[in-house]
């Protein structure tokens, strides 16, 4: 079975540009999570969805960040405008209610903002 | 609110030696506890998890962890380190699986030949 698929794997952009990260969760999973990983702050939860509905976005750092899940098989995380401090690895993960909370992670999108 | 503390950001062991990575948690309700491993340029993979029942949990690649409620700990061990164990290890906690995982800062394990 395919795991969580993220794209792009690497993104280099200039400050002020719009960045869109994409995620396809595991088929049948009803929860989707976006995490950000940095050396300084570790893994931070940005937002999560249940059945395509955002449940908690309190981890989204600023209004420059937005996330959508238009259907059960696709989610986006958008940063507009991007800043150098947004440079990080962004992970998408999915899970199935009743499975004991286990998360299945994608391989991440490494973002570098110059 | 739940939290996780991993003692030691970097642990170095010799090949064949015991691996011990420490994790302490804080939770107001019975926790679900997890250990994940991250190899360079990859996502996180589940090593093992504790939900209910037996407090000694066995995972993949010879790792195991023991849930000790009285010590609020969930330390990860492996009797004999292998070079392929070199990676970043993350401990995480959830409120009985009802809340998103909260991760510790991670411990980087180096294995010396």
Strand and helix map with partners:
The complex is a heterodimer of chains A (114) and B (113).
Chain A: E1 5-7, E2 10-13, E3 19-24, E4 31-38, E5 42-50, E6 53-56, E7 65-71, E8 74-79, E9 88-95, E10 104-105, E11 109-113
Parallel strand pairs in A: 2-11
Antiparallel strand pairs in A: 1-3, 3-8, 4-5, 4-9, 5-6, 7-8, 9-10, 9-11
Chain B: E1 3-7, E2 10-14, E3 19-26, E4 31-38, E5 44-50, E6 56-58, E7 64-68, E8 73-78, E9 87-95, E10 102-103, E11 107-112
Parallel strand pairs in B: 2-11
Antiparallel strand pairs in B: 1-3, 3-8, 4-5, 4-9, 6-7, 7-8, 9-10, 9-11
Hey, roughly how much beta strand do the residues of chain B contain?
Answer: over 45%
- Give the class of chain B from helix and strand content and strand pairing: mainly beta
Query: Gap between N and C termini of chain A, in Å?
Result: 37 Å
Strand content of chain A: over 45%
Describe this structure in words.
The complex is a heterodimer of chains A (about 110) and B (about 110). In chain A, the strands form 2 sheets. In chain A, strands 2, 4, 5, 6, 9, 10 and 11 form a 7-stranded mixed β-sheet that branches. Chain A contains no helices and 11 strands. The model of chain A has no long low-confidence stretch (mean pLDDT about 95). With about 110 residues, chain A is mostly beta strands. In chain A, a hairpin with an 8-residue loop joins strand 9 and strand 10. In chain B, about 0% of the residues lie in helices and about 55% in strands. Chain B has strands spanning about 5, 10-15, 20-25, 30-40, 45-50, 55-60, 65-70, 75-80, 85-95, 100-105, 105-110. In chain B, strands 2, 4, 5, 9, 10 and 11 form a 6-stranded mixed β-sheet that branches. In chain B, a hairpin with a 5-residue loop joins strand 6 (about 55-60) and strand 7 (about 65-70). The relative contact order of chain B is 0.34. The model of chain B has no long low-confidence stretch (mean pLDDT about 95). The interface of A and B includes residues 4, 33 and 103 of A.
